Structure formats: structure tokens, C-alpha cells
Amino acid sequence: MARGAMEPLIVGRVVGEVVEMFNPTVRMTVTYNSNKQVSNGHELMPAVVASRPRVDIGGDDLRTPYTLIMTDPDYPSPSDPYLKEHLHWMVTDIPGTTDASFGKEVVSYEVPRPAVGIHRYVFVLYKQARGRQTVRPPTSSRDCFSTSKFAQDNGLGLPVAVIYFNCQRETAARRR
After folding, report:
1. Which domain of life is it from (predicted)?
2. What is the pTM of this model?
């Protein structure tokens, strides 16, 4: 994939703060409410992301398992993200060419509820090099999670796909 595909991840500081520089090799699409497809850096309203999205995974074949992580690196506030990253969702053992519902949900989906500022919500996909049932669920709380450290501890290597969206609290003036 060309550097142009990486540009929004670099500009949005996803590369550097959440993941290291990587080469995207697998197609991943994230869709909320069956019609709102996530695009890097675009804003989604809290009402749109209230239920778990459909995450379609490309990949080689059904025998290749993947791990999906959703995290908020701006928690609790972008100006003071002292609890970053906040883990919102984790699914392991997703067979390639399927979607996340075919995997094992090890951390349930937590609805994004940004209280202050604009938050980035990042979906990171890893290929499980060691096969199925090789990724250990995190043992600590959802706060102070590190996607990179988790990947390193579980032998996941670099991500194969990353996508993120922005979200902020809906104010009374913005609701129509």
C-alpha cells in the first residue's frame, strides 16, 4: 500500500502514539449501523457508535487468525490523556476473510463516551503468527493499556491494518 494510505495515520498521530510505522497488508473495513463506514480522521457522532460495529477482515484464508484492538489514546481528555490508552474492545482468533463476530471477544465493546475534547478511536488489526488461542487477554483494567506493548508481549509483530475516527460529546447546540 502506498505511503498516501498511511498519511492520515501519521498526521493524526496514530502512528507514533498508538502503533509504530507499519506496512498495511490486509484490508479491514469498520461499519457502524450497517451504513456508516469509518474513514481515517472522519468524525462520527456518539449516537452512531453506540453499538458494536461490523469489522470485515480481508486476509489470505480462514486458517489465518487475527486480533482486533479498539483503543482511545486520548483518555480521559486529549489535553491530559494520563489514562491512555483506554481499551474499548478486543477480539482474538478472527478467521481471515470473515468479520469480527467470528472471533473470540475477550474484552467486550465499550461505547465511546468522550466527555472533553475530540477523541481518536483506533482499530488495530494484527495477524496472529503463532496461530489460534495464542493471544492472552489483558490482565489489568481498560485504562493505561498499551497496544504496542500488548502486541509485543503476545508476539503479534506490527499491525497489518489500522483505521481510526474522531468523536466528541454532542452538545445541545449540535443536536438537531
Report:
1. Eukaryota
2. 0.94
For residue 27, what is its C-alpha cell? 484490508
- Tell me how far apart the alpha carbons of residues 108 and 125 are, in angstroms, rounded to a whole number: 16
Cell numbers at 90, concatenated:
478486543
Neighbour-count burial of 123, counting CB atoms closer than 10 A to its CB (0-12 exposed, 13-18 middle, 19+ buried): buried
Contact 72, 84 (CB under 8 A): yes
Matching residue, cell 466528541: 168
**Nearest residue to 135 (alpha-carbon basis) of 122, 121, 151, 123:** 151
For residue 152, CA distances in Å to 20, 26, 75, 117, 126 come to: 11, 19, 22, 30, 11
pLDDT digits (tens, 9 = 90+) for 77-128: 999 999 999 999 999 999 999 999 999 999 999 999 999 999 999 999 999 9
Give residue 151's identity as a one-letter amino acid code: A
Return d(Cα 127, Cα 121) in angstroms, integer: 20
The burial of 54, by beta-carbon neighbours within 10 Å (0-12 exposed, 13-18 middle, 19 or more buried), is given as: middle
